[in-house]
Amino acid sequence: MKTAIATASYAGDFERCKLLCETLDAHVTGFTKHYLLVESGDVGLFRQLENAHRVVVDERDLLPAWLKAWPDPLTRGRRRIWFSPRILPLRGWHVQQMRRIALAAHIDDDAIFYADSDVAFLRSFDVGTLWRGEDLRLLRHEDALLRPVPGDQLMWSANAGALLGIDPARKSPHDYIGTLIAWRRDALISMCKRIEAVHHSHWVEVMGRVRRFSECMIYGRYADEILDGRGHFHDGKDLCRVFWFAPAPTDEEFRAFVAEMKPEQVAIGMQSFIGVDTDHIRRLIGC
């Protein structure tokens, strides 16, 4: 089975994405291509990271022409906002999720393994281990939504159900959100067709009108509740250990964080908003 790797990124995360690429090249095997999915204005910057197995993809080649990026006046143009009369205004994190979904229609791999820009691989990892025969690993935190959860997971799960046309009375107890996850290409394509059939509009338009969504929840509920799990097997172990909250760790705290990685964890993630300098991380991990 063929598996590609995809990373949705932007100029503000370029140095973090560069570190991801360096560590991915050093530790990850078993994939076909690594796709960097970026906004049109960032294509030239990210071309520096291309090599024999890494390709930069312009979002204009993935998303509808009517979805356009503009300088965000609320940030004096430092960030972008995506707008169309068909949707509510979208931020970069919304459109990054859409790029991850849209890539499936443009490649011929059997699956896509997603690695965020703020990830660094520290251990060897063979992407082929995501498969059991013809079944792909689906990250599922069993019954996690039955316990108190932070943030908007419950709303994201409910909105995923609405997007997919699932009876609102059927509430999923599971959380499908993770940093290193894999999705089937054929399931992504049929998922988009399902959304379009239910709402009679392009799937990007439907998601853009909802705005509060998680692509992980949408795919997870689709795989489990529409496909009845066909083509997947469940695994609740996170492959990446993530440092979520500020303040940034001290060197000692960072080393302890790495030392406490579980055996199945092959990478770390340092959220960009906590303010860790990428060159400092590079030195600490010896890259």
From TrEMBL:
InterPro entries on file: DUF6492
Source organism, top-level taxon: Bacteria
Any matching Pfam family: DUF6492
The protein, known as: Glycosyl transferase
Organism of derivation: Paramesorhizobium deserti
